[in-house]
């Protein structure tokens, strides 16, 4: 009885005014550093401590951001970059997760593929940029392929690690219930590997933006990387910073989407 009362008190406390106040306070503390950075960006150029030619105030970059958004120029570049990044990331997930689960679960497959995987994962994606351009041309395919290659390795390696580190007690318990190998794999190994898999996907999400920018700076006619590079060459510095801010926002949104997906698919962790 007392346990039930305690739970009711905890539940009411977690949804009361005090809970929301604490949550708001945490969120406010989390934004203090961002506001301080933006304030410094605005103030230092205006005080003459930084050359405004190379670092205009934040409000100037924001004005360029709003103007490009109104004209549709920013939307065009954002759509091009987001499409390439998401396409490469999704392809990497579609290939890396199944392959990683197989390599992590079946030791014989790992023994065959490990030497080749070690060779390719230690080859920097940007070092292969000329190869992708020569083989696939200057169009969309080479850029998506670059993102795919960069994203594949963190997803694959974290999936392998997740499959290999499944709690042996879970496996023994499942086998004691006479589960088939297929059901053991789908009902135990895959769910237990999800936290590690999502760690790899979130790392790959950051890689997708990083590599894409480099790819778009070579031969692209649209995209945020092209925008930043072109604005730098034409000395439209506010536009350059507006493109950089947009890239940061794109990476932030992508990470938040992956965090929400992880929480939804691994909700069982909170119940453990």
In short:
This protein is mainly α and 272 residues long.
Question: How would you describe what is shown here?
Answer:
Helix 4 runs antiparallel to helix 9, helix 4 crosses helix 10 and helix 7 packs antiparallel against helix 9. The chain has 272 residues and is mainly α. The protein is 83% helix and 0% strand. The protein is built from 12 helices and no strands. The radius of gyration is 24 Å and the shape is globular. The longest helix is centred in the last third of the chain and has 36 residues.
Would you spell out the secondary-structure blueprint of this structure?
Elements: H1 2-14, H2 17-46, H3 58-71, H4 73-105, H5 107-121, H6 129-136, H7 140-164, H8 168-176, H9 181-216, H10 224-233, H11 237-265, H12 268-271
Helix pairs in contact: 3-11, 4-5, 4-7, 4-9, 4-10, 6-7, 7-9, 9-11, 10-11
């Amino acid at each position: 009885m007392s346990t039930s009362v305690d739970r009711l008190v905890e539940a009411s406390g977690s949804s009361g005014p005090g809970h929301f106040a604490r949550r708001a306070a945490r969120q406010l503390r989390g934004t203090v550093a961002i506001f301080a950075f933006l304030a410094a960006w605005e103030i230092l150029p205006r005080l003459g401590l930084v050359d405004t030619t190379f670092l205009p105030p934040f409000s100037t970059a924001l004005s360029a951001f709003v103007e490009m958004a109104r004209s549709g120029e920013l939307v065009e570049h954002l759509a091009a970059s987001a499409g390439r990044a998401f396409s490469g990331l999704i392809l990497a997930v579609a290939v890396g997760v199944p392959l990683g689960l197989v390599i992590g679960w079946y030791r014989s497959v790992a023994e065959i593929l490990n030497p080749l995987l070690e060779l390719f994962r230690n080859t920097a994606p940007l070092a292969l940029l000329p190869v992708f351009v020569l083989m696939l041309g200057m169009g969309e395919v080479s850029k998506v392929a670059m993102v795919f290659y960069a994203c594949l390795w963190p997803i694959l390696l974290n999936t392998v690690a997740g499959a290999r580190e499944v709690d042996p007690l879970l496996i023994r318990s499942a086998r004691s219930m006479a589960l088939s190998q297929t059901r053991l794999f789908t009902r135990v190994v895959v769910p237990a590997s999800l936290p590690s898999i999502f760690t790899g996907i979130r790392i790959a999400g950051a890689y997708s933006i990083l590599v894409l920018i480099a790819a778009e700076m070579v031969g692209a006619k649209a995209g945020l990387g092209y925008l930043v590079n072109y604005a730098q060459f034409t000395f439209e510095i506010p536009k350059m910073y507006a493109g950089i801010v947009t890239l940061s926002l794109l990476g932030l949104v992508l990470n938040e989407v992956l965090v929400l997906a992880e929480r939804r698919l691994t909700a069982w962790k909170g119940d453990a």
